[in-house]
Amino acid sequence: MSTTDHTPAVVDSTPDRFPNPGLPPHRPRRADVDERAARRATLQVVTMFTLSALGSIAFLVAYYVIDPQTRGTIIGIGRINLFHAVLGVTMGISLLGIGLGAVHWARTLMPDEEVSEDRHPPAASEEDKQAVARQLSHGWRGSQLNRRSAILGSAGGALGLFALPLVVPVLAGLGPRPRGELYETNWQSGMRLMIDPSGAPIRAADVTQGSVFHVMPEGFVGAAAHELDPEEMMISKGKDQIILVRLDPAKIKSQKQRDWGVDGIVAYSKVCTHVGCPVALYEQNTHHLLCPCHQSTFDMTDDCKVIFGPAKRPLPQLPITVDDEGYIVAADGFREPVGPSFFERNRPGLLKGDDA
Q1: By CB neighbour count within 10 A (0-12 exposed, 13-18 middle, 19+ buried), where does 201 fall?
Q2: Is residue 189 domain-resident?
Q3: Could you tell me if residue 353 is inside a domain?
Q4: Rounded Cα distance, 296 and 311, in Å
Q5: Is the peptide bond before 197 cis (omega within 30 degrees of 0)?
Q6: Other CB atoms closer than 10 Å to residue 330's CB: what's the count?
Q7: Please, are residues 347 and 341 in contact by the beta-carbon 8 Å criterion?
Q8: What distance in Å separates the CA atoms of residue 10 and residue 65, rounded to the nearest whole number?
Q9: Does residue 326 share a domain with residue 197?
Q10: Both 40 and 148 in a single domain?
Q11: In whole angstroms, what is the distance from residue 40 CA to residue 37 CA?
Q12: Contact 185, 215 (CB under 8 A)
């Protein structure tokens, strides 16, 4: 006995191609059909670009006229640094004027017809190159720059002046050529090494092998630091910080390192010679100091020479000794600049003891 399947067949009605819906009809803007509206739009664009130029000029004036330490009160915000506030506002006006002018120009005067193009091979024929040239020429005329030179002049002026607030502070901020201040820290001969942040002095007898102390100079840490100007304190934190470690004297490779230390106790700057991050991670088994920012690694048994990472110079060593009470003190200041390199680092006349 046979059965017949009466299930209707499924017919795929999906078309092979969808009809091209085409582009919506172009709706002319007022500036396209009314010359007075076009002139008004031109004036608005020029005004915005001019506002940008004035913002750039105001930025430069404020940069040189306002004292960077001037503070004031703004309602709803409170006390702020007026120098930074004015620079921010004028820079914002400069950038806003360029942005608004460009957007308004595009929406009111530039061509807004939608076009579609078929895909074509990457290599262009000579006819296509000529067509592109004609399109660029048409675009130039469509932007109306050939007719409305005021837009071109104001846009060029706004963009040119906008570059000045970016360049002038950089050049002016370089200041005079560096002198001895880049070589100087607050470390002086006879100054005790104090634990950071407690401010307690360190006896040489209390420094066991493998122990680590984070150190600041006497008078710049603990209760004494509260009497310092906050800016002076921040500068000291940035350049005076020291790491103190006691090594096995038999493992120290450098004679200078032995001479500047005390029975294996050595003191080195914590300011990385790459970009100035604090080098504070000590591996007791390997005697390596690690910078957490970019992984520069220094060998403490070999005068803190770089063994890995982007740093190019060893960490400077601080000469130390012991006073009559058994406390560790600086035998002298640093003999070289601490921290990253700079152009004038090896200029004659700036090294300690150089009278040239």
Answers
A1: middle
A2: yes
A3: no
A4: 6
A5: yes
A6: 24
A7: no
A8: 82
A9: yes
A10: yes
A11: 5
A12: no
* β-pair partners for 305: 299
Q: Which domain holds residue 103?
A: 30-113+129-173
Report the domain count for the chain.
Answer: 2
For residues 163 and 220, state if they share a domain.
no
Determine, yes or no, domain membership for 191.
Answer: yes
Residues 150 and 217 in one domain: no
Most distant pair of Cα atoms in the chain: their distance: 121
* Same structural domain, 273 and 235: yes
Q: What is the pTM of this model?
A: 0.54
Q: How far is CA 307 from the centre of its chain?
A: 27
In this structure, the answer to whether residues 198 and 133 fall within a common structural domain is no
259 and 302 belong to one structural domain: yes
Q: For residue 194, which amino acid is it?
A: M
Identify whether 9 is part of a domain: no
- Measuring CA to CA, how many Å separate 213 from each of 241, 288, 351? 11, 15, 28
- Assess whether 162 and 184 both reside in one domain: no
- Torsions phi, psi for 291 (to 5 deg): -90, 125
Q: What is the pLDDT along the chain (356 residues), one digit of tens a residue?
A: 555 556 666 566 666 777 777 788 888 889 888 999 999 999 999 999 999 999 999 999 998 898 888 888 878 777 888 888 899 999 999 999 999 999 999 999 888 888 777 776 677 778 888 888 888 888 777 777 667 778 778 888 887 787 777 777 766 665 565 555 667 889 999 999 999 989 999 999 999 988 899 999 999 988 877 788 887 888 888 889 999 999 999 999 999 999 999 999 999 999 999 988 999 899 989 999 999 999 999 999 999 999 999 998 999 999 999 999 999 999 999 988 888 877 666 655 544 544 43
DSSP secondary structure letters along 248-289: -GGG---HHHHHTSBTTEEEEE-B-TTT--B--EEETTTTEE
